Amino acid sequence: MIVGIGTDIIEIERLREAAKTPNFLAKVFAPEEEAAKRRPESLAAHFAAKEAVTKALGVGLTGVSLPEILILNEANGRPRIELRGKTLALADSLGIGSWQISLSHNRGDAVAFVIAIRRD
User: Closest Cα to residue 9, out of 36, 31, 41?
Assistant: First the structure.
């Protein structure tokens, strides 16, 4: 059963500029996400995914910490969501057991769509 859905779109150039701000990447991404190594379009898609997760949780950016929402890639490149800390606790309290995620981008924009699924 679907608990929540979230989507977000962001201009790639906006993320490219934000990434130049000191400490921006550390405030938004966990070290395991290796944000500094990502191309701007991938970085923007991963940022959009974090915001989409907050929307699926029903809280927006209130009450969660973006570095606790990790967007990681499987060996085959497929993205996956991993939660930690208070964000994981919130998802657990909502009964969320799994996530589905889709990311895409074109030259100017990146988009993410996530579905939070109740555990059996």
Answer: 41
